[in-house]
Write a structure and sequence with these properties.
Blueprint: H1 3-16, H2 23-31, E1 41-46, E2 49-54, H3 59-66, E3 73-77, E4 94-98, H4 101-111, E5 119-122, H5 128-137, E6 142-146, H6 149-162, E7 167-170, E8 183-188, H7 197-201, E9 203-212, E10 222-227, E11 233-237, H8 257-260, H9 263-268, E12 270-273, H10 280-283, H11 285-294, E13 299-303, E14 306-310, E15 315-319, E16 322-326, H12 331-344, E17 353-358, E18 362-366, E19 374-376
Parallel strand pairs: 5-6, 5-8, 6-7, 8-9
Antiparallel strand pairs: 1-2, 3-4, 9-10, 10-11, 11-17, 12-16, 13-14, 14-15, 15-16, 17-18, 18-19
Helix pairs in contact: 11-12
Length: 379
Amino acid sequence: MTLDELRVQAAETLDGLDGFPEPWMREIFLKVPRHAFVPDAVWAWREDAYRPVRASDEPDTWAALVYDSQHPLVTQVDDGQVDGGDADARGALPTSSISAPNAVFAMLAAADVRPGLKVLEIGTGTGYNAALLCERAGEANVVSVEVDAGLAEVAVRRLAVAGYLPRVVAGDGERGWAGGAPYDRVLCTASLHRVPFAWVEQTRPGGLVVTPWKTTLQPHGMACLRVSEDGGSASGHFGRPMSFMDLRGQRRPEFPLKDVYTAESWEESRDSRTDLDLSFLNDDFHARFALGLQLPGVHADRDGRAWWFTTVDSWAYVCGGSVQQWGPRDLFAEVADAYRWWRAAGEPELYEFGLTVTSDRQVVWHADPDRGHQWELPV
């Protein structure tokens, strides 16, 4: 099957998944050759590491990965320090990708990108999303910022070959790009836990800032924020849950248990009992999202039947009703209280929560930004 035939097949798959919220999305998916923005060497998890899959060696596998309609494709690992041309190369951390088509169009729908709107994209990556934005908004209206200068340079070449000439800026996307402001839309293609206020400042009143959003407890979310008429804030509900690679300046820290757990701390730990069933952490996405909002900086990980909760200075181990804890925080009580609040509030879904961003505060809330329950996020 040719690459063009695979693109048509992927479009048909997306049709069945309602992956094109608006008709124009299908049209530009078929028009923009996704494969033209993908390097010869991509990365797939095999056994215990990311390993290169090269079009020159495995053309069918490479092509299938490129036109997978529901999964992103890793195009760089370890900030480019590992060379995909090496057959024995192994990568640990995915650091750039071409997003899954269904995720791309879900974000474009949330941002309500329309012809003639000025758009700032944070995270050029391969350039594919910028090409889609050019088709929809017009290339003269698109600015894309990429923190990795090497990726930016390659993206410019690929965009030009495909017939697109947006402005691509090599720089720190958290600063936006004031040279093209004000924008009608700011879209970030990487996940973060704190929205840079520069994006709000560079967006017109009434414009939208749309970005994947995460907590240490839950990496799947999307913030859809409308800028106020005075330009001093942006606020809105969370939208469809999405998972993207981390913004480089806001990478999710590693699970900190190894830094705080020792045999001595186990001996010193406090013990107690609980009848709380923690299966909701696996089974109920909305519960876990709500807990993540209330417990910033708290990590959770399952080990068989047991759960570990940890921060930079405390840990809790819960298994079979037995609780062991160490450190200044009563982490399990915090988890239990947050879950009880969620239950008492009527088990609200992700879509009932929102975020308000100002120059000095970021606050998540339930139901209403002014009268609902609020939790201020740490700086």
